[in-house]
Amino acid sequence: MPPILTLRGLAHHADRQPLFHDLELALEPGDRFCLIGRNGCGKSTLLRILVGLLESDRGERFCQPGTKVGLLSQEILDDPGGTALEWAAADLADDAGRHRAEAYLDRLGLDGDRPMADLSGGEQRRAHLARVLAAEPDVLLLDEPTNHLDIKAIEWLEGFVAAFRGATVIVSHDRAFLRRVTTAMLWLDRGTLHRRDAGFETFEIWAEEITQADQRNAERVARRISEEERYMERGVTARRTRNQRRVAELANLRAERAELRRSWQGSATIGLEGGASRSNLVIEAAGITKAFDGKTIVAPFDARVLRRDRIGVVGPNGVGKTTLIRMLTGHLQPDDGSVHHAPELKTAYFDQRREALDTDSTPWKTLASGNSDRVMVRGESRHVVAYLRDFLFAENQARQPIRTLSGGERNRLLLARLFTQPADLLVLDEPTNDLDMETLDLLQDVLADFPGTLIVVSHDRDFLDRLVTLTYGLEGDGTIVESPGGYSDYHRMKTRSSAPAESAEPVRKESATVPKPKTRTKLSYMDQRELDMLPDRIAELETEIARLEDVLADGELFTRDPKAYQKAADDLQAAQDELAAAEERWLELEELRETLAG
After folding, report:
1. Does domain 5-205 fall into CATH 3.90.1150.10?
2. What is the pLDDT of residues 384-431, one digit of tens each?
């Protein structure tokens, strides 16, 4: 079957910067691609070219006659009119189309009678998604489709995409979503589009292969630079023309090495500053309740939040997650019960509505007050450019207008500003909405090292599994269920508790002849000993990982001593793998202990 949409020899620039060159892509029915790339590399631009909203500087776009292409973009709608249903069905001429739009709005948890002008940005995106799906496109282009969807809606969308017969290209930071729906990957890297016919579950392997290839290229370039420098030391006076050419080549090689290093060099070296409070008990809530218009949002609930707790809050949209957080942080009084905070508790809050940035300002002015070039971070004065570099900004972006930044870069700037505030308690309300995968990785790294307490509301299942150690699940009737571990642990617990109970009759018949086994009420000696020892081992591994990351942060180590660099990198990977296994084992034993005790 011939492709239904083809790009040939594409080249495009944005703000005089090349985004991609000689790009080739063919989409066939049944393709389910995820599109991966560093922030600002041109992923959203490529989707706009695919749908036909933007012409490339060079190359050809061919679409089979009669092919419909639908795009869910990240852009905010301009003054949409009518109700959500009217807007979602605007391009559909028949009643069947209107019914489809209504059904999709219902699936996405949006009342079709609500005026579009009254909807939040996230609700407008849900209406936009309903409109795209109701049009029954042959090619479906989704730019961050899970933003502002709850887990139930995300799981429904997973089923829809998996059954979709057309071609799909998805840009998303939601790893769990990508693992479940994609069958192939596209990687836009430094202007080149790479393809791998395997699902996103193999992304880490692919990324490691590309990283190793880049490191080999870096070694090759380093050797060339060394040869050129030795040549230069012998003098550049003779054969001046040839020498000047070699000087230019040396500059190009150094630029190539810098680009290669930026492409594979690891993570940022930033962190959050803890506040002044030293209390181990951060929040104590006793019997708190809340109801609105006679509907119970939070039934009597007790909580003890300790220092360094990582708490995830999950539940459908509108169930009361933000209400619970506001009561725990003291921004909303409960109807009954009490909430006590640690003395001198400082709280930093990342709201899902996101504080607006002045698009005419610059990242420099956003972080540094007045004419200063310094910013205070963790009690130290940092140059604003160095601090921005920690958040993966290039030096030339420091003084660029914020309006030239991509959506992910703007969110990264908001995080950079947030992290200048000392805090004992950090509350993140839907932090992953509108974040690209690169920024999400950065956020996870920073939060893992935060010395204070974290409460995060999120629908990103992978993000929760990687980060939190305790989950509050809001069931919708005011009930809040506590579960050790991340979302997957909470989901398994819910699945077990909702499974139909086995009939007790066969057990009674058998018990007449078979002695009833003694019920375990605690862990075995070996399991308890392992559980007691794991926290110390986890702490040792975290210390070792931090030491190795400091070693690898030396930008000259690779060229100075490649073997030492490789050994440190191998040791870091081994320590990270052991840490992940130790944390997983701790969660298993802790869940077993609580199950037996219960």
Report:
1. no
2. 998 898 888 888 889 889 888 876 778 788 888 888 888 889 998 888
Predicted pLDDT of residue 237: 43
Q: What is the dihedral of CA 277, 279, 280, 283, to 10 degrees?
A: -80
Please provide the average confidence, as pLDDT, over all residues in the chain: 81
DSSP reduced 3-state for 454? strand
Task: Please count the CA atoms within 13 angstroms of the CA of 2 that sit on its side-chain side.
Answer: 8
Contact, 33 vs 168, CB < 8 A? yes
Residue 212 vs residue 301, higher pLDDT: 301
Q: What is the DSSP string of 512-577?
A: TTSPPPPPP-S--HHHHHHHHHHHHHHHHHHHHHHHHHHHHT-TTHHHH-HHHHHHHHHHHHHHHH
- Order of all β-strands in the sheet with 336-341: 295-306, 281-292, 336-341
Cα 160 from Cα 179, distance rounded (Å): 14
pTM of this structure: 0.68
Rounded Cα gap, residues 261 and 389, in angstroms: 14
- How far apart are alpha carbons 562 and 509 in whole angstroms? 71
Give 469's Cβ-side CA count (13 Å radius).
17
**What is the number of alpha carbons within 13 Å of residue 47 lying toward its C-beta?**
27
Q: What is the CATH number of domain 281-498?
A: 3.40.50.300
Domain ranges across the chain: 5-205, 215-264, 281-498, 518-597
Nearest to 128, CA basis, from 174, 169, 91: 91
Highest mean pLDDT among 3-7, 344-348, 381-385: 3-7
- Do 281-498 and 5-205 fall under one CATH topology? yes
CA dist., res. 234 & res. 251, Å (int): 18
Beta carbons of 183 and 174 less than 8 angstroms apart: no
In terms of Cβ atoms closer than 10 Å to its own Cβ (0-12, 13-18, 19+), residue 108 is buried
What is the fold, at CATH topology level, of the domain defined by 518-597?
A: Helix Hairpins (1.10.287)
**What's the CA gap between 140 and 408, in Å, rounded?**
22
> Residue 169 and residue 177: Cα distance in Å, rounded?
13
pLDDT tens per residue across span 62-80: 999 999 999 998 776 666 7
Mean pLDDT on 585-595: 79
Half-sphere exposure of 499 (CA within 13 A, CB side): 8
Residue 456 has a pLDDT of 93
Contacts of 259 (CB under 8 A, 6+ apart): 190
Residue 496 φ/ψ region, left for φ over 0, alpha for ψ in the -120 to 50 degree band, beta for the rest: alpha
Place of tokens 């940022």: 268
| Average pLDDT for 576-591 | 80
Q: Which residues pair with 311 in a beta bridge?
A: 455, 470
